[in-house]
Amino acid sequence: MYYIEDEEFGKVHVGTRAGMRNITMRWKGGSLYVNAPRSVSITQINATLNKFRDKLRASREKESVSYHIGQVVQCYGLTLTIKEQDKKPSLILFKHCSDNVDVLVPKGIDLSEPRNKNWISKALRHALNGHTQPLIELAQEVSRRLGVAPARFEIGRGLRKMGHCTPDRVIQLSANLMFLPEDLIELTICHELAHLTHMNHSPQFHALVDKYLNGREKLLELKLKKFKWPVM
After folding, report:
1. Bridge partners of 104?
2. Is 87 found in the same domain as 43?
3. Do 209 and 152 belong together in one domain?
4. Disulfide check for 20: which of 26, 37, 127, 208 has CB 3.0–4.6 Å away?
5. What pTM did the predictor assign?
6. Distance (Å, whole) CA 35 – CA 38
């Protein structure tokens, strides 16, 4: 076995086997393990990592997500707290109080079981419903500060696609942005505002995003890649 360093995934463990025909990859204990035919070069392994980077990132997030009773998930303008309830053992309930939402899971539930983790993850995302006004207000404040005016802002539910700028200048932002810290929310907002000028991802587009972010685009993009989402 040997190791290669990946900018995003860190130390990648590589093992080679005789008779293998394909490269396989899996996460274990927070580290990425690659098994490959003995004839495969490091260049080929890096190419495979890049080809499946999005899927590897998503699978890493699923493995790393964990929940416990009493856990507090701090969102933008909202606090979610996981608690127990014994009234309805087949449901996850919600208790709303101003800017706080208790996510009430059945008492005694195994929080490490993958199916339950996925259930709680969906509940946390659902808990954002009706609490997205701070996200709209932040987007409006950023657009005023930059002097860039979309037709309007809308809230969507995408998890992988955090924002979208339509041809008629409507900017759609995912409610799930609220799980991010404010500077990473602004990264997405500025990205979509820049699409009002450049409907592409050209060097001119990225230069404008960087200008909007006071030279922090690459720094924030790297921070976003390393961000540990509390949902799957």
Report:
1. 83, 93
2. no
3. yes
4. 37
5. 0.77
6. 9
Expressed as residue numbers, the domain containing 101 is 72-126
Q: 77: buried, middle or exposed (CB in 10 Å: 19+, 13-18, 0-12)?
A: middle
* In the block, residue with structure tokens 């539930």: 109
Note the residue count of the chain.
Answer: 232
Q: Report the chain's terminal Cα–Cα distance, integer Å.
A: 31
Q: What is the pLDDT of residues 134-182, one digit of tens each?
A: 999 999 999 999 999 999 999 998 777 899 999 999 999 999 999 999 9
> What is the secondary structure of 34-83 as a DSSP string?
EEEETT--HHHHHHHHHHTHHHHHHHHHHHH----TT-EEEETTEEEEEE
Would 195 be classed as within a structural domain? yes
CATH number assigned to the domain comprising residue 214: 3.30.2010.10
- Verify that 145 and 79 share a domain, yes or no: no
For residues 206 and 150, membership in a common domain is answered with yes
Alpha-helical runs (H) found in the chain: 42-51, 53-64, 114-126, 133-146, 182-194, 203-212, 217-226
